[in-house]
Write a structure and sequence with these properties.
The structure is a single chain. This protein is an alpha+beta fold and 253 residues long. The chain has two domains: 6-84 and 226-235, 2-Layer Sandwich (Phosphorylase Kinase, domain 1), CATH 3.30.200; 85-206, D-amino Acid Aminotransferase, Chain A, domain 1 (2-Layer Sandwich). It has six helices and 14 strands. Strands 8, 9, 10, 11, 12, 13 and 14 form a seven-stranded antiparallel sheet that branches. A hairpin with a 5-residue loop joins strand 2 (13-17) and strand 3. The longest helix has 23 residues, at 145-167. The termini are close together.
Length: 253
């Protein structure tokens, strides 16, 4: 295999130059991190599951007219995506109180919110991705007011889609995080959903038992992370029942 240029390596993925201009290859690692990488481990097979699940969600969004950077899955751990300029924000949509919201506001975990609440964090690991307001975003020029209107619309459309898909298989979408990328068509800019959508970036609870089926299993030492992710994939039909998708990472030359 020809040597590819690594563009960026994050906590859960490696980004390589794509085969065509304007494309990238996104490689899903087995690394698991929590609490801003203070807790780390390698969970064999996690990257395979997240690749398949992100493919499923991104394909579904594309099909209903919500634009994403996803082009196609290349193999068990890699997908071809459109290259974007990432808006330096994490966009969080919350349907139920959990995690930092419960801690900040003293709301019991699992409390249904009056309506979906959209929050923004500034993407900077060294600062712990701090919560910011639209005032900060406008003042520091991270996104224009038109961008923010478009981002809010995209986030709520993703929420509607994911909530429905999950509810159909008995899973409650508690909250999720997405990233948004800018693409340019001539002189015109568009915003599209980028990065990934997987149990790494969502809180997913069984609707009957409230069993955690997301990265909180790792954060809180609640059992096997791959078992939880495999349960999500199986319910969605992404992985056949009794499948064993666990494989060792493919080395990239």
């Amino acid at each position: 295999m020809a040597r590819r240029k690594k563009i960026y390596e994050g906590k859960a993925k490696i980004i390589y130059e794509g085969p065509e201009p304007g494309t990238i290859v996104q490689y899903f690692k087995d690394d698991a991190t929590a609490f801003n990488a203070q807790k780390k481990d390698v969970i064999e097979g996690k990257g395979v599951l997240n690749n398949r699940l992100s493919e499923f969600f991104m394909t579904g969004l594309n099909q209903i007219g919500v634009p994403t950077h996803f082009v196609k899955r290349l193999n068990m751990r890699e997908q071809l995506c459109r290259q974007v300029e990432i808006v330096p924000l994490e966009v969080i949509v919350r349907n139920y109180a959990a995690g930092t919201m419960s801690q900040r506001l003293g709301i019991e975990e699992g409390t249904q919110l009056p309506r979906p609440i959209v929050e923004y964090c500034y993407k900077d690991d060294s600062l712990g991705d701090p919560l910011v307001t639209e005032e900060h975003i406008a003042a520091f020029g991270w996104a224009s007011q038109q961008d923010m209107d478009d981002i809010l619309s995209l986030a709520l459309r993703v929420n509607d889609f994911l909530s429905g898909v999950m509810m159909a298989v008995g899973i409650r979408l508690v909250d999720f995080k997405i990233e948004i990328g800018r693409v340019y068509d001539g002189d015109f800019q568009r915003l599209i959903v980028a990065d990934e959508i997987s149990p790494d970036s969502c809180r997913l609870w069984d609707m009957e038992t409230n069993e955690k089926l997301d990265k909180d299993v790792f954060r809180r030492d609640l059992g096997s992370l791959t078992d939880a992710y495999t349960e999500v994939a199986t319910r969605l039909g992404v992985m056949p029942k009794n499948a064993t998708p666990i494989t060792k990472p493919t080395l990239i030359n």
